Amino acid sequence: MKVPTPVQLSPEEVAFVRGLVLYEDAEILALNKPAGLSSQGGRGQVHTLDELLWAFAKPGKARPRLIHRLDRDTSGVILTAKTKPAAGLLGKALMARRFSKIYLAIVTPGAPEPKGGVIDLPLRRDEQGREAYMRVCAPDHPDAEPSRSRYRTLAAVPGAALLELDPETGRMHQLRVHLAAIDRPIAGDARYGGALVVNGHTAPRLMLHARALAFPHPAGGTKRLEAPPPADMADLIAKLGLG
Fold first, then answer.
1. 65-66 and 75-81 beta bridge pairing
2. Cα–Cα distance between 53 and 43 in angstroms, integer?
3. What angle do CA 104, 109, 111 make, to 5 degrees?
4. pLDDT digits (tens, 9 = 90+) for 70-87
5. Which residues does the UniProt record annotate as the domain Pseudouridine synthase RsuA/RluA-like (predicted)?
6. 152 within 8 A of 164, measured Cβ to Cβ
7. Which pTM does this prediction carry?
């Protein structure tokens, strides 16, 4: 197979992406993706994470392969495979739902009722010009995709809550749309009705963070990786008294 043409990166870009490394061994590379960085397919002039992975390529070899994606404005753990066999094994494990993903989100206007449970609402893709949205739909809609999200409340104050989320399926924007559907949109999520100011404090972006990822390691056993919330989210959690 022909190796794709490498992307030329600046020294600053190389240093930036190398600074995101959470874990690395012979077969996998995990990064702590910041908010604002597209995983793949960005339309701007800035390189995507997929392109920045050329910083880790050996001469004449392909870059590590992304196993899954995170929304551009979502931060947290993202996994890549350094070898073709590892990519194949991890891709199959992802499809078989053998990955466990844990997210943190700040929502308004307070804790959901009940404070923990499962959101089981089918979703469909809705294209509007160059933008794509996900919408809750009837189970018998021709484009319906079964979608399930588990949630539990970690902390709550009047007007806001910190939730732990576990998506059982992996639809685009799933957690964002599911939480909006139960009237607890994620703070900073302008696309799906999230508050931009929470109890007098600005939500600078989508307050959604991929905190932990557990998966079958290609060498055997289960690997669990964690990433602490970035400074902007940790600051809002502290200001709201949710820490």
1. antiparallel
2. 18
3. 55
4. 999 999 999 999 999 999
5. 28-181
6. yes
7. 0.94
Q: Which two tokens stand for residue 21?
A: 């490394």
Average pLDDT across the chain, whole number: 95
Amino acid found at 102? I
Alpha-carbon 21 to chain mean position:
16
**Separation CA 161–CA 157 (nearest Å):** 6
Cα 218 to its chain centre, rounded Å, is 22
Q: CA 174, CA 167: separation in Å to the nearest integer?
A: 8
Residues linked to residue 24 through DSSP beta bridges, in sequence order? 29
Catalytic residue among 50, 71, 73, 232: 71
Long-range Cβ contact pairs of 86-93 (< 8 A, separation 24 or more): 86/27, 86/28, 86/218, 89/216, 89/218, 90/28, 90/215, 90/216, 90/218, 91/67, 93/215, 93/216
pLDDT band at 41, cuts 50/70/90?
Answer: confident
Helix, strand, or coil (residue 120): strand
Residue 175, judged by CB atoms within 10 A of its CB (0-12, 13-18, 19+), counts as buried
Using CA atoms, how far residue 194 sits from 102, 128, 184, 198, in Å, is: 20, 20, 8, 10
Would residue 232 show up in a list of annotated catalytic residues for this protein?
A: no
User: What is the pLDDT, as a whole number, of residue 5?
Assistant: 81
Q: How confident is the model at residue 21 (pLDDT cuts 50, 70, 90)?
A: very high
Q: Which ranges of the chain does DSSP label H, i.e. alpha helix?
A: 11-18, 49-52, 84-95, 174-181, 231-240
